[in-house]
Amino acid sequence: MTTADRAGLPLPDYDELTVGTLEHRIRGLGAADVEKLLHYEHTHGDRAMVVQVLAARKHQIDEEGG
Length: 66
Hints:
Number of helices: 4
Distance between the termini: 30 Å
Helix content: 55-70%
Low-confidence stretches: none
Number of domains: 1
Shape: globular
Oligomer: single chain
Mean pLDDT: 91
Strand content: under 5%
Number of strands: 0
Order of helices and strands: HHHH
């Protein structure tokens, strides 16, 4: 993972976040930012718990109409 890969992420310290911290920090993000993190995760770590947290937040945003 290069710095360039992480440059456009909405959470600059994303790779260092625990799942619990990530869950808290993404609450304020919109759909586009969550999608960006999901794409990054799928192409880099593809950690199941992280993908689950991000997908749940994306679903929540979609349900809220945002």
